[in-house]
Amino acid sequence: MQEYISVEIKESMGFVYINRPEVLNALNRSVIDELWQKIKTLCDSGVRALIIAGMGKHFAAGADIDEMLPQTPFQVLSHSFNDCYSFIENLSIPTFAAINGYALGGGLELALACDFRVCHSNAKLGLPEIKLGIIPGAGGTQRLPRLIGLSRAKEMIFSGEFIDSAQALSWGLCDRVTDSCPVEEACSFAKKIIQHPKLALISAKKAIQMGVDSSLQEGLEYEAVAFAMLFSTHDQKEGMKAFMEKRRPEFKGC
Predict the structure, then answer these.
(1) Is 129 in the active site?
(2) What is the per-residue DSSP string for 8-60?
(3) Which of 3, 67, 129, 185 is catalytic?
(4) Is the pTM here over 0.90, yes or no?
(5) Rounded to the nearest 5 degrees, what angle is found at the Cα of 62, between the Cα atoms of 61 and 68?
(6) Structural domain that includes position 237
(7) Which of 51, 61, 96, 163 could join 167 in a cystine, given CB atoms 3.0 to 4.6 angstroms apart?
(8) Mean of the pLDDT values across residues 104-125?
(9) The CATH number of the domain where 213 resides is what?
(10) Distance of alpha carbon 106 from alpha carbon 98, whole angstroms
(11) Which is the catalytic residue, given 3, 22, 109, 245?
């Protein structure tokens, strides 16, 4: 059986590579199922961060049109990428999309499910589905407006045109732009984050997600409880004690 996803673990970080460079890392249900399973396995191993990238010159140039063309509406719903992308979005660890070349359609939607997007300066991002007589179907119409605002999201979705990494950075669609390897840049970014206490990072991410999906008052109430619960952890005691003693804290992730 052909494997479409390559993985490795380095320095407590999981690296996931889409490995279909011959078709610009186009996504189909088999690729998504393997991606989902291998990410689950990595997370079960205890990695502190996840970095997703594409082998070769591109991140992922969208869904595989050959697979989609003959599908019925029921088949399209059955083969949706939403289950995998929502799983990635809801991971407790920080997630990074390291984007080289094209991140289009379902490829950009995969990147949108991550916490951060790190782009090479050659990157091209877009949701071109409108040109095929369809709309983004794996979160593009939902996550993109929440990230960059309604008008800019509508411009990208209605026109189907690509934007470059500089424009993506200015719009808040990507968080870093580099002329070197985006995986290395994402790795450097991740290292700065995961040096902090594990439970505090988990709580911060969950509180942000809860706030986005609820009212301000509900978000504030959740935040207050999450804040208070961290006072039961070793790392809270160690962090504050180290601050008072003017020394480097020794966090244990508990």
Answers:
(1) yes
(2) EEETTEEEEEE--GGGTT-B-HHHHHHHHHHHHHHHHTT-SEEEEEESTT-SB
(3) 129
(4) yes
(5) 135
(6) 198-244
(7) 163
(8) 98
(9) 1.10.12
(10) 15
(11) 109
